[in-house]
Amino acid sequence: MTIKVLDLFAGAGGLALGLESVKDNSGRPVFELYRAVEIDKYACDTLRSNFGKDRVIEGDLSNTKIYKKVVSDCRGKVDIVAGGIPCQSFSLIGPRSGYGKNDDRFRQDKRDDLYKEFRRIVRQVEPKVVLIENVRGILSKKDFRGEKIIDKLLADFERLGYCFDNETTGQKYMVLNAVEFGVPQMRERVIIIGINKSWRKMAVPQIRATHYGPDSEKKTSDGLMPYVTIGEAIGDLPSVCARVTWTGLSDTETRRQREKNKEINYGAEKLPFSRETFEQHLNKISESGVKFFSFVRSNGYPYIDDHIARSQQMTDLQLFGSMKEGETAKEFITRKPKLAKKLIKYNMETFEDKYRKQRWDAPCTTVFAHLEKDGNRFIHPVQRRTFTPREAARIQSFPDDFIFKGPFSRKYRQIGNAVPPLMAHHIGIAVYKIFGGIK
After folding, report:
1. Is 364 considered catalytic here?
2. Catalytic-labelled residue, pool 44, 87, 163, 241
3. Which of 30, 72, 122, 160 is most buried, by the most CB atoms less than 10 A from its CB?
């Protein structure tokens, strides 16, 4: 039996990809993406390219036509309704972290109620299991009446007949960190799993960590593997350089830089994959890193796609080269105040880590959709530039043969918004237990 999944607010498909990677004892896929619903046209192009065009429904769930299409296609045909309910208003990055937290528009954000569209579909489709992924901020966010969004959400689904109690903790949700599942990134997410009590009366299986993080009290002695570092995840990729933009340059400097840019190796949309370089890299990294590549490069894909450096201003490149690994803008200002004043153009009072140089020997900080605007919080540890789309995809644990569609900036957005597929894989293992698999 294949467990069919309806993925709402599907994005680029990280959750579905992770679920589909779960295999039974015979090596057959356990889950199948039956339909994916997404409003972003470029993400839909990505979904069609990687999962097949017939599985994708493009449009807004609050649109009656789209809603009826989803219900018509999926009622009686899917076992799971899953999705990452849009989380911009729950996020602890941006308005909630500073200037906007007392803004009425923020307190009464309409996006808080998008879970109701999810609930409407669940009521009509009546799946055996619901699976919801969201940012940690959903646990503290309140509506304009002062009620916690998470409490409203859980109560609404409990009235539909779903049980959320965890078999180990008794809690109705789990807070997971992607780094504890072999993803080279510190990324906390709330996972909510509900089981339809009219189908099966049981507690929700615990999602078991496989790795320990940098700050974890658990270690190898607890049966866990060490975390995967940025260096392990992207160290085999070819070196590329950022081209320089004309901002702030004189006409003479612009002409000179335009000629220099022609000589810069900034990468390409499709590069040949070097098996020799990759094998050398595998011989230098930990067992955790090797295991990571068993997921990311499992099928001999012969290319590296979207390994292109973002163009930067000259002052940014000077700043990137002057910062130490792991250093934030605030720390750099303290260490080099005169140089910082010359190179940093932003107000640092609101975002003290507006710039961050990542560490080669550590997991990445949380990757997010702001990457489409700039990569200043994701400065490469040893090259004077920010992460390429493929490096960001690796850090999110997307396999190299997963190809993103759309303009350069929108690829970054899709990657930043995604559920890390490797974390989704381990969520899928727990969900499979509900259906009787993996004792």
Report:
1. no
2. 87
3. 122
